[in-house]
Amino acid sequence: MRAMILRVVALSLLAALSSGCGGGGSASNPPPSCTPASPPTAAYVSNNNDSTVSMYTVNSCTGALAPTAPPTVSTGSGGPTPTGVAVTPSGKFAYVANQVDGSVAMFTINSSTGILTPTSPPTIATGSFPKGLTVDPSGKFVYVANGIVATVSMYAINSSTGTLTATTPATVASGNNPRGVVVDPSGKFAYVPDFSDDTVSMYTLNSTTGILTPTTPATVATGNGAQGITVDPSGKFVYVGNFEDNTVSMYTLNSSSGILTPNTPATVPTGTEPSSVAVDPSGKFVYIANEGDNTVSMYTLDASTGLLTANTPGTVATGNAPDAIAVAPSGKFAYVVNQNGNTVSIYSITGSGTLTVAGTVATGSAPFSIALTGSAQ
What are phi and psi of 181, to 5 degrees? Predict the structure, then answer.
């Protein structure tokens, strides 16, 4: 009888140990180690004060950013002060807006190292004081918001060289002081936040020519100081950070006309001076970088209504003056550019959408924007 009891106990212990080594793991029984993806994803940060782009490779297991060698590339001479940065969905080309000389710097991306090489020619003219730019989901067109002249410049991408050619016409009117531009996932519509008009300009996109045409009506009202803007991955909802009244405007996107309709309620509170908005790839969570109080606001997105509900906790600390936020294509990590701290804050994303600090990395002077390969910006 004693031998039988011992045998049962031994078998029970063996079963318990076997279950402890399963997929989930724990602190004492961790899951199998992660092997970083190869080649790695790349990340690029525009540095406003030193006219460079910082280049990094991304560890897919930890989210850490490792500077390349060399760690930076110039965006041009004469103090171009780079602002927005974007990459093509293919990961072949990168583009940076230079606000002082009104140009776009063009680069090819080394798929193995992530290093940027200027194209020939290295820049193309755009409008005055460009602030933000984006690549459409097809990877065929680039759009640049020109802050002073209230226009959007439109370009076609050479699929072999990455160089840009202005469309005809080369620009379309926007509202006053446009701060950025986004294209919806279907590639049919584009949206521009007009900071000084408190509106979003809305356009249809010709998939053959790349030309943007204003919708009717051409704008929709936002809160005060429309700045950051994003479209959720489903293409159903649009979110705008209102820098001057500390709210986020929420809209439903009409898939036929591209017109935005304010949700009910139309806004949700955020932190101080929301400057950038991002949605995770699953479309479950929304993050707002708040430049005035050094936080990121975290929300859960209702997939039926598009309404945002603040998470608990509602914010996480950043570095000094967070100016831009991006979520990795994997949905596992988020990155926040701290303009006055010369750093990028790195976060892991939990299953509930909460951001957990995972580290920081140094940038150049006054980092302004960030883009990662593997997704359109």
Answer: -155, 140
Q: Which own/partner contact pairs does 360-364 have at CB distance under 8 Å and 24+ positions apart? A: 360/319, 361/56, 361/64, 361/65, 361/67, 363/45, 363/47, 363/54, 363/337, 364/45, 364/47, 364/49, 364/50, 364/52, 364/54, 364/72
Taking CA atoms, 122 is separated from 76, 140, 158, 164, 252, in Å, by 8, 18, 14, 10, 39
**Is-above-0.70 flag for pTM?**
yes
- Structurally, at CATH architecture level, domain 39-369 sits in 7 Propeller (2.130)
Tell me if residue 118 falls in helix, strand or coil. strand
Strands of 130-135's sheet, edge to edge?
Answer: 130-135, 141-146, 151-157, 164-173
Give 173-210 pLDDT, tens digit per residue: 999 999 999 999 999 999 999 999 999 999 999 999 99
CA gap 141, 308 in Å, rounded:
31
pLDDT value for 185: 97
Q: If you count them, how many residues does the chain have?
A: 377
